[in-house]
Write a structure and sequence with these properties.
This protein is mainly beta and 164 residues long. The protein contains two helices and twelve strands, in the order ααββββββββββββ. Helix 1 packs antiparallel against helix 2. The two termini are 19 Å apart.
Length: 164
């Protein structure tokens, strides 16, 4: 889904909220999931070739990271489970960090809550420090004909992987 499709979807969600029948028909995929703070709209996360093993690809607009390990593809939210702040990536080697420059990064880095309260998570979304009591939610990933699709509206176990 490209940027224009996302803008169209947002417009239709707002338009759908103006009428009761339209709200019921348009509510799926509109807004953020209150349990995760992540927009619930499914999106295409590129092709299998875009996701080498051992790297995340960060989708800031969707507040989701997609990774690939030896077991397959997975996705998790980039919203702190403590206070709902966005998370920033900090590379283990210092090569990138913060919100602006880091779009693809090694899973050996960590995610840090932007509020500064000390919440951190590892490369698979597991809580490592600070006040968050829960790890990051993982979402359904499907791989069809080489395309990776993420559905943040469906949470799955952190161990769930999809193979190409």
């Amino acid at each position: 889904m490209d940027e224009h499709d996302m803008e169209r979807r947002r417009f239709l969600c707002v338009l759908g909220a103006t009428g009761a029948a339209a709200t019921v028909a348009g509510a799926a995929g509109c807004g953020s999931d209150p349990a995760t703070g992540v927009p619930a709209t499914p999106f295409t996360a590129g092709r299998v070739a875009d996701h080498p093993q051992g790297l995340w690809k960060i989708y800031r607009a969707q507040k989701v990271a997609v990774g690939r390990d030896a077991m397959g593809y997975f996705a998790f939210g980039l919203v702190c489970t403590h206070a709902g702040y966005n998370l920033s990536f900090v590379a283990a080697d210092g090569a990138c960090g913060g919100t602006a420059l880091c779009t693809t990064a090694s899973m050996s880095g960590s995610l840090v809550c932007e509020s500064g309260h000390g919440g951190t998570f590892d490369g698979e979304g597991n809580r490592t420090a600070g006040p968050p009591m829960r790890s990051l939610p993982h979402f359904q990933v499907t791989v069809t004909a080489g395309d990776i699709r993420v559905n943040p509206g469906v949470t799955v176990a952190a161990t769930t992987r999809s193979m190409a």
